[in-house]
Amino acid sequence: MTRLARWIQRVLIFLIASVTLWFIVTQIFERIDQRVPVFAALLLTYALAAYVVLPPVIHASVAVLRRNRIPRVTRAADGLPADPVNVVLVGSQEQLRSAFAAAGWHVADTLTIRSAARMVVSFILDRSYPTAPFSALYLFGRRQDIGFQEDVGDSPRKRHHIRFWAANIDPEFGVSDLAYWTRRLRIDPSQSHIWVGAGTTDTGFGLQSMTWQISHRVDRDADSEREHIVATLHGSGCIAEERYIEAGEPVGTHFITDGRIFHARLVPRESP
Fold first, then answer.
1. What distance in Å separates the CA atoms of residue 202 and residue 216, rounded to the nearest whole number?
2. Which of 15, 16, 37, 200 is deepest in the core (most CB within 10 A)?
3. Would strands 261-266 and 87-92 be described as parallel, antiparallel, or unpaired?
4. Where are the transmembrane segments (predicted)?
5. Backbone region of residue 201 per phi and psi (left: phi > 0; alpha: psi in -120 to 50; beta: other values)
């Protein structure tokens, strides 16, 4: 990407962020503040901004600004860089599930009010929740398609985890087509896809930047988690044609990483 293109992108992002902030402050907070006490208005504004307004804004922004590109990092709902992309696996969703199941990892529950409440209770009581849900991160303009995790000990506060996005399921529509925004993406579990993954280690709970969504805190050493994931996949016997892809650009986040991406093909598990 040229320097001019980067500056144009930054200006567009700034404009989108400014309009979004103006909308939250003047159209949401001020209207709520006229009807309820200030504390309740702030609480309702936070909930609407973090979970209703910002996610679709990020979806639209990424869809326009990063069309036909595999980003080097995922994005949080606030639009800021999140977990680095560090694993790419090629195969079907069935093979992906089988590989991580053989390694002893669990598919994460969908984030709902019920699963979020169960996660909070598990955190407070320090009780294991092997399929705890993930917060939403975004790649290709959408949240993760599937995620896997492995507890660190019996505590729900720490876990190895990785989110995956199927990179080649988008239909060939332009962003100006209504179908691009209204389509429902469906993944055929038996069809081969390029699974782009972002793996990190959760070390506790905290608040996300800007949106203040409640989420896990993440270990900055992303390379260590990448190597742990590679080791577990080796143990499952479900990968072949392994190699590392050297990143063309820095990852661009606060994570400590050399930017390399592990790449492998998923294969049926060998019999003992």
1. 6
2. 200
3. parallel
4. 12-29, 41-65
5. beta
3-state SS, residue 126: coil
Our separate counts of H helices and E strands in the chain read 8, 12
Answer whether residue 250 shows pLDDT above 50. no
Reported residue count of the chain is 272
Is the Cβ–Cβ distance between 59 and 78 less than 8 Å? Answer: no
pLDDT at position 209: 52
CA 180, 181, 183, 184 torsion-angle sign: positive
Residue 200's φ and ψ, nearest 5 degrees, are: -145, 175
- Beta-carbon-side half-sphere exposure of residue 223 (alpha carbons within 13 Å): 8
Q: Which residue has the tokens 């949240």?
A: 143
Give the helix/strand (H/E) hosting 115: helix 113-125
- Alpha helix segments (H runs only) across 103-191: 113-125, 178-182
List phi, psi (to 5°) of 188. -75, 115
- Asked if residue 127 lies in contact with residue 156, where contact means CB atoms within 8 angstroms, the answer is yes
Whether the CB-CB separation of 201 and 155 falls below 8 Å is answered with: no
